[in-house]
Amino acid sequence: RVTRLARMDAVFFTNSGTEANEAALKLARKHQRVLGHPERTGFVALEGSFHGRTMGALSVTHTAKYREPFEPLVPGVAFVPAGDAAALERALVEQRPAALILEPIQGESGVQDLDFAYLRAARELATKTGTVLIFDEVQSGSGRSGTFLVAEQAGVAPDVVTLAKAIAAGLPMGMCLASSALANTLQPGDHGSTFAGGPLACRGALVFLRELEEGGLQHAVRERGAQLRAGLEALAREFPVIVELRGRGLIQGVRMARGADELKAALYARGLIVNVTGGDVIRLLPPYVIRAEEIQRGLGLLREALASL
Ligand SMILES: Cc1ncc(COP(=O)(O)O)c(C=O)c1O
């Protein structure tokens, strides 16, 4: 079911998003080795990226505060500015990495949704340079953006996709999905984990995917996402301190000219928990099952908190 939804050919189950990315990085290296390019071991990642906290995933994570206490990390990683296709081309041509890894919506650095044109350019450049294209959709995927993957909306077919978070309805699970060219790259024994793919997590994933596809959950995410966006647009008209709205579906961000931390505290005092990501963006990641009246209530609390600043 998940390979059909993600339009991929194989899946490796893990226990978390970090481990899914770890599997993806290893898969890319082995793929290059199988193709006769064992020297292609490096990775290109984007500034602002977050891919997890194990050594491999941390090595392609950009934020200094997560990385520096644990250096040295995996060598051969280059970071390029997100959204700059020319810089990406230079890095892929010069570095000849095993893979390019990116989040189509950078969750931890302020719900930065990358242009679809940039994502398509990344696909073309990866193909041209023989680089494995990994989409980390741990936060943006599993239906949260309104479609199963953001890749689908962008019209891009990555070589590898990683998922986690919602995928097993709250049970610990991640997935590393591969397209046909990489579907047989990992052979039995190459990679594994005791609890990965356990029956309880898999059952959770099956129930979640069925609800998403057949139980109206994907439709609800789109409806509630549109409602949330319309409400945020009205607030942005009323409060000029809101300078930008980002994201889609039920992953949205409100960029503030100032006072993001104060707004977070004012919301917390009113019983609404939000996070500030990227320094100035209030990130909204409501549960998929949120009801229309709860979105209305949340928007009301946001309005009250904005007025109190
Ligand atoms: C884009 C992205 N990748 C990877 C991870 C790591 O996932 P996990 O916390 O399940 O290990 C996260 C978690 O926030 C994430 O947002």
Task: Explain what the structure shows.
This protein has 11 helices and 13 strands. The protein has a 7-stranded mixed beta sheet with strand order 1-9-8-7-4-2-3, with helices on both faces. The chain has 2 domains: 2-214, Aspartate Aminotransferase, domain 2 (3-Layer(aba) Sandwich), CATH 3.40.640.10; 217-308, Aspartate Aminotransferase, domain 1 (Alpha-Beta Complex), CATH 3.90.1150.10. The protein has helices at 2-6, 17-34, 55-59, 64-67, 85-95, 116-129, 150-154, 199-214, 217-238, 260-269, 292-308; strands at 10-14, 43-46, 77-80, 99-102, 105-106, 112-113, 132-136, 160-163, 174-178, 242-248, 251-256, 275-277, 281-284. β12 and β13 form a beta hairpin. It is an alpha/beta fold and 309 residues long. α5 (85-95) packs parallel to α6 (116-129) and α9 (217-238) packs parallel to α11 (292-308).
Q: Count the E strands.
A: 13
Percent range for helical residues?
A: 40-55%
- Supply the CATH superfamily name of the largest domain: Type I PLP-dependent aspartate aminotransferase-like (Major domain)
Based on the coordinates given, report the CATH architecture of the largest domain: 3-Layer(aba) Sandwich
N-to-C series of helices and strands: HEHEHHEHEEEHEHEEHHEEHEEH
* pLDDT < 50 stretches: none
Distance between the termini: 47 Å
Structural class: alpha/beta
Report the portion of residues in β strands: 15-25%
The general outline is globular
Neighbour order of strands in the largest sheet: 1-9-8-7-4-2-3
Number of separate helices = 11
* Overall tally of domains: 2
